[in-house]
Amino acid sequence: MNKNQCILPVIAIFDSGTGGLSIYKKIKKYIPHAQYIYILDNEGFPYGKRSKEFIFNRVIKIITNIHRLYTIDLTILACNTASIVALPYLKNKLLDPIIGVTPEINLAMSYTKNKVIGFLGTSVTINNFPLFQSQSNNIKIITLDAHKLILLSEKKMLGEYISFEAIHDFFLPFIQHSPIPDTIILGCTHLSLLIPEIIKIFPKKIKLIDSRKNITDQSHLLLSKILRYSRITKSMPGIAYYTNRKILLKSLHKILNFYNFKVLKFMNISYS
Description:
By secondary structure, this protein is of the alpha/beta class.
């Protein structure tokens, strides 16, 4: 048992922006007594229009750096794009547990009644995830590049105004499709922040699929032994790392503080 396990687990959560805070919030309900480290790549954000090579190199550098600084008990890639591009490599490279979020295709297939599924994700996620295996099951998957929605969700998280009309217009390809998808896969962590708006857009009850519950279950399972031996019963203030000093907005500082990340540190990552 390592020195962290004698006290409390250390959990590192990575995302390109603030979307991963929705996963942190979910996990913290079930694992409150842990040292949380949140890393957001505000220099690279958003990943939606980046190349696969850029994302891979960027994520590897950041995760490697955080593992040099801390003994991490669990690493979570709270980003579908980063998970699809870099998770297989990191699983082979890192000795400790690392998990990521990937689109819940099988779960969506089990829910759909009209066999039409909407899929939201970055272009990298859409182009590198085996979506179309589902076509053989007579299920139609309609994909939308969620880049604009991701930008809107980041603004919402930072307390900025977002247009409901802009969100509505984004979904027109789904709304105008016959039949309208009865199940939508949220293939990006940021999109869970827009669930209230998405629900209002569709006239009938719709099933939204995200990966937060799955990640929470995996985290608890992987840390079960550590949690059993943990001697700490009080929450620890979190530590947050950012990668661009020039765009560390007051609103970002405020939201990180709200989520109990009291210590903010700069991580210097140069573009490859």
